[in-house]
């Protein structure tokens, strides 16, 4: 008999029950330390940055899929 796939957790998938933290400026100097701390505590991270491509070192914070970089600029509302 096959096991149900709903009860099997993929080891590389993010924890869906983990709390989510949204960091504005999370790729900056202080934000990187905050992001690392939250990742260690098990948060899933959404980091808003003006230039996500220049912020790739913060992308490696946490486990695979735990951190997502998003482009945004709060000083220029659209």
Quick overview of this protein structure:
With 78 residues, the protein is α/β, with parallel strands linked by helices. The protein is built from 2 helices and 3 strands, in the order βαβαβ. α2 links the parallel β2 (44-49) and β3 (67-71).
What is this structure's SSE topology?
Blueprint: E1 20-24, H1 29-40, E2 44-49, H2 56-59, E3 67-71
Parallel strand pairs: 1-2, 2-3
- β-strand percent reads 15-25%
- What structural class is derived from the secondary structure elements? alpha/beta
Poorly predicted spans = 1-12
Quote the average pLDDT. Answer: 79
Intertermini distance: 54 Å
* Major sheet size, sense and barrel closure: 3 strands, parallel
Series of H and E elements: EHEHE
Q: State the helical fraction.
A: 10-25%
Number of helices: 2
Number of separate strands: 3
Shape: globular
């Amino acid at each position: 008999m096959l096991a149900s796939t709903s009860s099997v957790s993929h080891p590389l998938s993010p924890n869906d029950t983990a709390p989510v933290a949204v960091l504005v400026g999370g790729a900056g100097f202080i934000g990187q330390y905050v992001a690392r701390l939250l990742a260690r505590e098990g948060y899933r991270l959404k980091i808003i940055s003006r230039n996500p491509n220049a912020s790739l070192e913060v992308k490696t914070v946490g486990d695979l899929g735990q951190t997502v970089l998003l482009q945004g600029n709060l000083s220029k509302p659209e």
